[in-house]
Amino acid sequence: MKKLKVAELFAGVGGFRIGLENTKKYETVWSNQWEPESNIQHASLIYQKQFGNENHSNKDIEDVLTSSIPYHDVLVGGFPCQDYSVASLLKNSKGLLGKKGVLWWSIYRILEEKKRKPKYLIFENVDRLLISPNTQKGRDFAVILSSLNQLGYAVEWRVINAAEYGMPQRRRRVFIVGYYKNTDIYKRIKKSKPIDWLFGEGIFAKEFKVQQPQVLFDEHYLDYVSIDSDLKKVTKSFNLDNFDRVFKNSGFMIDGQTYTTSVTPSFSGELAKLKTFLEKKKVEEEFYITDDDLEKWQYEKGAKAKTRTKNGYTYEWKEGKISFPDDLEKPSRTIITSEGGKSPSRIKHVVNTRYGLRRLTPLELERLNMFPENHTLHEAVPNSKRAFLMGNALVVGIVEKLGSRLYKETM
Predict the structure, then answer these.
(1) In sequence order, what are the beta bridge partners of 31?
(2) Catalytic one among 81, 87, 97, 357?
(3) Contact call for residues 22 and 16 (beta carbons, < 8 A)
(4) Which architecture does CATH list for 279-327+336-392?
(5) pTM for the model
(6) What pLDDT, in 10s, does the model give residues 174-194?
(7) How would CATH label the architecture of 4-269+395-410?
(8) 81 is catalytic
(9) DSSP state, residue 201
(10) Which DSSP state fits 262?
C-alpha cells in the first residue's frame, strides 16, 4: 500500500510525525526545526535522536531554499501564532511579504514556489488565531484563508478539545486541513452542500463527530464570511468596524467562499482521567513540594484581589481560585510551557500521591500528550526543558485520527 510522503515544518520533537506514522500510512521525507536565539537546539537534538539526521534541517526556515525540500504529498506544521498582516510586495516577484520573522509567510513562500504543490496541508495553532487581533477580530485567519485560496487550496478547520474525544488533556487547538484543487476531496467539496460537508461529509465531521442540528437549513446554521482576494485589503479592512467574532469553531473555504458555524462535540466513549497517566512509584525528589513551599503554592492557587494602576487609571484586579491539587478523576488541564521548575505557580499541575504533593514529571507530561514514553529523554536536555517542549507540543492522538481519516478519504 502506497504511503503518503510528509514534510514537517516547525517540527518540535516530532508530534506530527509520530501521529501520522502511527497509522502506517505516511512516511516523513523531510523535516525542519529551529529554535531562534537558542544556543542549544534542544528540540532538534531530541528529533534527531529519535528519527535520525537524514533529511532533517536544523536552520531558520526563512533561510531554507524551497528547492532543497523534496516532493511531498502532505505539508504539516504547528506554526506560531503571530501577526500575519501583509507588509509589502516582494520585489521582482508576484509574491507577498509579511513582517520579518512571521513564519506563516515561509509556509506561503514554500507553497508558492513549489511547482508540484503538496496535495494536502495539516496545520495546528492556538484557537485564538480565529479571533486575533483584538482590533480586527479574525483578520489573521482571514489572511491565511485568502492566501491559501490564491495558492489553489480549499480549507476546512475545527477547534478540537482533545479531552472531549477521550484523550488525556483538556487542550483546545484549531486544526486546519487543506486540499489542493487537483484532488478528489477538493472536487467533492465543490459538489457538496456546505451544511452537509460540515456536519457529515467532511474529514472533521467523520472523525470528530458533533451533535446534529434538529433541522439542517444553511441559512440558520451557517454564516457566510466575505474575504477579499487582495491580501493587503484584508490586512487593512477585514472586520475593522465590527468587534464581534467572525469565525466560529468550525468551517471551510473553497474558491474564496467561506462558511462557518459553531458545533458541539458528540462523544459516547469514556473520558480520560489524570490518575491513569501518573507514575505509581515514588519519583525524583525534585518534583515534590516541600513544607516550606506549601504556603506559597496555596497562595498562587488561591483567589486574589488587588488594586492596580495603569496609565493613571486605578482598577480592581481579581483572580479566581484554581483546583489544588488537580482533580485526578478528570482529564488534565492544558500543559503549558512553564510546567517545569520548582517555583510555585498558579498554572503548573500539582497532584496528590501516596508519597506527597508533587509536580508532574516529564514522562507524565509525555503521556498526557500521547507521546511514546521518555521520547524527550536526552543527556543534553534538562527536565525543565523537557516540560517546556511538551507545553509546546500537540496531542498526538488528534493527528493520528486526522491522518487516518485523510488517508481513507484519498483512497
Answers:
(1) 8, 56
(2) 81
(3) no
(4) Alpha-Beta Complex (3.90)
(5) 0.93
(6) 999 999 999 999 999 999 999
(7) 3-Layer(aba) Sandwich (3.40)
(8) yes
(9) I
(10) -
